[in-house]
Amino acid sequence: MTNDAEETGRRWHDMGGRPGGPVSPEEHDFALWEKRVDALMVLCSAKGLFTVDGLRRALEDMGEDAFETMTYYERWIAAITQNLLEAGAFTVAELNTKIEEVAARGATYGEASLEGGHG
Amino acid sequence: MPHDHHHDHDHRGLGPSSHPCRADQDAPLTEAQRLEIAVRELLVEKGVATAAEIAAQIARMDARTPALGAQVVARAWTDPAFKARLLADGSAACREMGIEVDALKLVAVENTEAEHNVVVCTLCSCYPRNLLGLPPDWYKSRAYRSRTVREPRRVLAEFGLTVPGTTTVRVHDSTADMRYLVVPRRPDAAAGWDEERLAGIVTRDCMIGVAVPSV
After folding, report:
1. CB contacts < 8 Å between A and B, how many?
2. Nearest to residue B142, comparing CAs of B165, B119, B159, B125?
3. What residues contact residue B159 under an 8 Å CB cut-off, 6+ apart?
4. Which residue from A29, A32, A94 is facing B42, i.e. has the nearest CB?
5. ipTM of the complex
6. What is the pLDDT of residues B30-48, one digit of tens each?
7. Domain B66-208: which CATH class?
8. Among all residues of chain B, which has the CA nearest to that of A49?
9. Quick check: B153 and B116 in contact, CB under 8 A?
10. Per-domain residue ranges for chain A?
11. Which CATH architecture has domain A30-112?
12. DSSP per residue over B28-94, as a string?
């Protein structure tokens, strides 16, 4: 995509009026992990750990490549994690340890979830 | 074109609205899924949130479907005083019906013969989620976000909706704090219908403004 940020000061996420292809009428039913990401966003916001502006700032700073290559909730969980680290909810070391622990449980979402992922 | 189903039963291999489910249980664990599990468990271990709170929030979101918005529209169609209150203060009118809109400012915009309204979020994915549930993928796509404000009639045509040249198309760009709900025109053929029957023809896409009700 063209980037007119230097001329207008607009950042990549400010898409209004830019060129685009046909609207593809895609949709899918949200998977459990996606619903959980959404729930974490709502709960952490409600508990004052970050604001919607903080979430948006992280999403926007991830850049256009992330928009093109990651799904919506993939970007959201990354932005939520960034905000929670900044808020001091947990440390990078704690997160890395936990990620290794989760990965060691199994190769699928169901196996890696303590409760089997059936929430 | 996008379609709203209101099935209340499951098809084999399909989700509750008959779109394919993502095979998130048995497919190889993705990085994002691993991160979601890790973050969620850390939040529970640190006492920030409980597993029950997270499950309750998912249930709360699952209960928010376009059927809620359709109830609001059907009430507006049958009760002129309610419609006036809805157009004056969407949030207050929804609370009056027992629909929680949280801190959002909800703005209801009415389609008329002279004006057709359509909603977009050019910056992100802001959407009246308390009334319609989570936004569909296309609402968050580059094509919809970029083009709807520049060439709305062409975008609407891609959804199969042709707006007469004599009708003004008004595009509403949502923000984090302000969400829009389109109140479509009641089809003439639905005159005399009761609220419940009317609600049945008000689809999600009608309330975004990319479709109009048909009977």
Report:
1. 204
2. B125
3. A23, A25, B1, B2, B205, B210, B211
4. A94
5. 0.92
6. 999 999 999 999 999 999 9
7. alpha beta
8. B48
9. no
10. 30-112
11. Orthogonal Bundle (1.10)
12. BPPHHHHHHHHHHHHHHHTTSS-HHHHHHHHHHHHT--HHHHHHHHHHHHH-HHHHHHHHH-HHHHH
Using the beta-carbon criterion (under 8 Å), do B58 and A81 form an inter-chain contact?
no
**B206 phi/psi in degrees, rounded to 5:** -65, -35
**Catalytic positions of B:** 121, 124-126
Summarize pLDDT for B154-164 with one digit per residue, the tens: 999 999 999 99
Q: Closest residue of A to B19, CA-based?
A: A28
Q: Residue A42's closest chain B neighbor by CA? A: B57
Domain boundaries, chain B: 31-62, 66-208
Looking at residue A27, its pLDDT comes to 92
Structure tokens at A41: 């966003």
Asked whether the beta carbons of residue A40 and residue B36 sit closer than 8 angstroms, the reply is: yes
Nearest to B58 among A49, A70, A119 (CB): A119
